[in-house]
Amino acid sequence: MKKTGAEILWECLVREGVEVAFGYPGGAIMPVHDAMLNYPVHHVLTRHEQGAAHMADGYARASGKVGVALATSGPGATNLVTGIATAMMDSSPIVCITGQVPAHLIGGDAFQETDVTGITLPITKHNYLITRADEVAQVVREAFHIARSGRPGPVLIDFCKNAQIEETEFVYPEKIALPGYRPPTHAPVADLEKAVELIEQAERPVILAGHGVLMSGAMKELQMLAVKTQTPVAMTLLGLGAIPASHELSLGMMGMHGEAYANNAIQNADLLIALGMRFDDRVTGNLRTYAPRARKIHVEIDPSEVHKNVKVDVPLIGDLKTVLIDLIPMLDEYEHESWLGQIAEWKQESAERSIMAWPDDGRLYTAHAIRALWEATDGNSIVATGVGQHQMWAAQYYTFEHPYRLITSGGAGTMGFGLPAAIGAWFAHQDKEVWLIDGDGSFQMTQAELSTAVQEGANVKIAIMNNQFLGMVRQWQEFFFDKRYAATPLTGPDFVKIADAHGIPARRITEPDQVFDAIAFAQKTTGPVVLEFRVEKEEAVYPMVPSGADLDDMIRRPVRQ
Question: What is the DSSP string of 156-221?
Answer without folding.
Answer: EEEEEHHHHH-EEE-----S---TT-----SPPHHHHHHHHHHHHH-SSEEEEE-HHHHHHT-HHH
